[in-house]
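Q: Entry one of two.
A:
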Amino acid sequence: MLKPGTIYEAIGGQEAVDKIIDSLYKHIGKHPKLIPIFPDDLEESARKQRLFLTQFFGGPNLYFQDRGHPMLKRRHMEFEITPDRKDAWLECMNKALEEANIEEPYRSAIFERLTMTAVHMINTEA
């Protein structure tokens, strides 16, 4: 059962988000299906993702303050996001949640929400 409050608070706040992001981008940087759509230097991508997940999990509105409304689909239109790449990204995220020791039921709740977001991001079937 989820505790009252936000997922952000329940998983340990910014420290937990930082662990997730560090692990996520370690995996993204090695994934053959994702390498083609990410820059060689993942630092800025990780920074934006950190801001987004902080806000997405119910923490401070860092993404909005830095970048405005997320408009995720629009911001990602320049990248070919296929069903295979969606699955690859979710695979990396699943590993990151495990490595960051995100406990249940939060891990499943986070993964479910991010799966819905990832499906929404698909912009090509190729």
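Q: Entry two of two.
A:
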Amino acid sequence: MSMLDKLKSMLKGHEEQTGKGIDKAGDYVDKRTQGKYSGQVDKGQDRLKDEFGGGGDKGQPPQS
């Protein structure tokens, strides 16, 4: 079993906490880089949420 499979199995059923953790980590990176890479950080957060769950807003239109 690969490391990614182990991570997925540990996070299964905890999508809300996973999403919060991903958001918190992204906010930390944005703060440390003074927002210089915020576009890349946002893309990374979206990909992690897709991979590990925690999206929470799938199927809903983006808010303006």
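A: Comment on entry two: Residues 59-64 have pLDDT under 50 and may be disordered. Residues 15-32 form the longest helix (18 residues).
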